[in-house]
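Backbone-to-sequence.
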């Protein structure tokens, strides 16, 4: 039986509630959420547990933290993932450009052995969409970059290059994302190289890497 949008939305709402509880370090039992959904819609508890893993996968593609114990699983119809993304953004009241569908297309094409060199688009079409951004404090960014002394605060390697103005190129990463309620402070931000920045967002081992960053830098406070 196909999942209705109402059922998917209820699953996303439950996931977000669990995620918020986890971020506040409040105890909860995942199975109780699955049982509630099972009573409402008639599917097995296991079905909802796996659906939660699909939701974790969408969070991972968005570069955001998923619930511990719900390892991302992408083995689901590609038409479902964009709907889950849409529902996450809607329930979190975030306007953003869809990303999951594009990433899924890229993933499938990379596995296509017959994929030939594409012509591309000489004049790509443009889409104008409203997005949500955060008003970051430039002083925080400047302080974190200056304090790093040109070295990545994750891998400890020097910045990959120097910009024309003479500044070392590093990127500022919020360990708890602003979209997840993180603060824009020096106790929640680090200067990292582009590779480590992507790893902290999308890496399968990003939790371990994040923990090591917390352990190695005294000023950081886990939020």
């Amino acid at each position: 039986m196909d999942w209705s949008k109402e059922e998917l939305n209820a699953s996303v709402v439950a996931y977000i509630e669990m995620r918020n509880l986890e971020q506040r370090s409040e105890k909860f039992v995942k199975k109780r959420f699955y049982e509630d959904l099972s009573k409402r819609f008639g599917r097995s508890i296991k079905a909802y547990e796996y659906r939660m893993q699909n939701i974790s996968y969408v969070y991972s593609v968005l570069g955001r933290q998923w619930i511990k114990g719900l390892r991302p699983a992408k083995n689901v119809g590609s038409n479902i993932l964009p709907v889950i993304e849409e529902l996450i953004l809607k329930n979190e009241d975030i306007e953003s450009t869809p990303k999951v569908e594009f990433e899924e297309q890229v993933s499938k094409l990379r596995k296509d052995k017959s994929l030939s060199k594409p012509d591309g688009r000489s004049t790509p079409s443009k889409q104008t969409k409203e997005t949500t951004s955060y008003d970051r404090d430039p002083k925080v960014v400047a302080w974190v970059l200056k304090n790093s002394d040109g070295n990545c605060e994750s891998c400890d390697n020097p910045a990959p290059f120097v910009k024309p103005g003479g500044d070392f190129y590093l990127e500022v990463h919020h360990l708890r994302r602003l979209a997840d309620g993180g603060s824009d402070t020096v106790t929640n931000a680090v200067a990292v190289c582009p590779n480590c920045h992507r790893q902290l967002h999308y890496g399968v081992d990003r939790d371990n890497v994040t923990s090591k960053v917390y352990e190695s830098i005294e000023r950081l406070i886990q939020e």
